[in-house]
């Protein structure tokens, strides 16, 4: 679905100032009287400068990409009881309107994290209705704190955070992407057909991946829950973003996932196709996929 886009147009104020025209030849003390007038003419009045500082130009809605999304979850090859996960992933797609600023918050969180990240973002950012400059400047740090807080709560509850996975994305005015992933969950951005991932963790050989999957049913030892947070600019080459759980990435690489769904314009159909493909490949991890498309 495509959200409504809000546009605002701010006109710049132009200073109208007529310099003093001085004719004739001025000598001696009269030269001192010219300098203040000349200074005001070259620099402009203080009032004019103030107006220019607070004036902001905003893109009209037709210049901003439309944001649409779709998500899908399905059962993994191994039953949840065997994997050690008793519940399904928590998936969120939330739109916020703060004055004239449109925000989208998306996420795929494992059962232990649940809605902790979403609640933190709601209470510490969305509900406060901050100014646009604050949102653009503090969104990355707020998301980082949300993930760290959720991980800390999991540690307090179970004293074990290995294998905790989550991934989220915030889209600001269709122009800026704030991405975060933890554990084996991952965010992949497609730019002009090429897959881009924030951070460089979880790069394994095919042999290691298959070895991990073969023995996962017999052991509960999981990968670390390192957190990676990054910012991406949404430019004309940005096509879509994949937010997916470990069950997707256990059986396919980033570029392969991008290639599989790039020609599917409907994000709901794309997410379903990717999740079903992971299931058909007998992925043993949690299979959840959310696709965000920019048109």
UniProtKB/TrEMBL annotation:
Protein name: PPM-type phosphatase domain-containing protein
Ranges of residues in domain PPM-type phosphatase: 73-294
Gene3D superfamilies for the chain: PPM-type phosphatase domain
MF (Gene Ontology): protein serine/threonine phosphatase activity
InterPro entries cross-referenced by the UniProt entry: PP2C, PPM-type-like_dom_sf, PPM-type_phosphatase-like_dom
A Pfam family matched in the record: PP2C
Family matches, as SUPFAM superfamilies: PP2C-like (SSF81606)
SMART domains recorded: PP2Cc
């Amino acid at each position: 679905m495509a959200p409504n886009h809000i546009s605002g147009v701010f006109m710049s104020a132009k200073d109208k100032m007529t310099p003093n025209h001085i004719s004739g030849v001025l000598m001696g003390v009269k030269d001192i009287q010219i300098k203040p007038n000349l200074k005001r003419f070259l620099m402009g009045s203080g009032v004019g400068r103030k107006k220019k500082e607070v004036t902001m130009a905003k893109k009209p809605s037709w210049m901003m990409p439309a944001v649409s999304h779709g998500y899908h979850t399905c059962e993994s090859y191994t039953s949840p009881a065997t994997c050690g996960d008793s519940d399904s992933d928590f998936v969120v797609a939330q739109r916020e309107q703060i004055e004239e600023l449109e925000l989208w918050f998306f996420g795929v969180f494992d059962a232990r994290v649940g809605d902790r990240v979403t609640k933190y973002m709601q209470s510490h950012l969305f509900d406060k209705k901050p100014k646009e400059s604050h949102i653009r400047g503090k969104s990355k740090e707020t998301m980082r704190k949300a993930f760290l807080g959720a991980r800390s709560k999991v540690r307090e509850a179970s004293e074990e955070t290995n294998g905790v996975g989550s991934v989220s994305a915030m889209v600001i005015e269709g122009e800026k992407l704030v991405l975060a992933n933890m554990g084996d969950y991952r965010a992949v951005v497609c730019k002009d057909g090429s897959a881009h991932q924030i951070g460089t963790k979880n790069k394994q050989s095919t042999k290691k991946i298959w070895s991990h999957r073969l023995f996962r049913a017999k052991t509960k030892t999981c990968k670390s829950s390192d957190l990676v947070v990054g910012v991406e600019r949404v430019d004309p080459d940005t096509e879509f973003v994949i937010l997916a759980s470990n069950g997707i990435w256990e059986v396919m690489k980033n570029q392969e996932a991008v290639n599989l769904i790039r020609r599917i314009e409907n994000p709901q159909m794309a997410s379903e196709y990717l999740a079903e493909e992971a299931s058909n490949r007998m992925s043993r991890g949690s299979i959840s996929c959310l696709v965000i498309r920019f048109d």
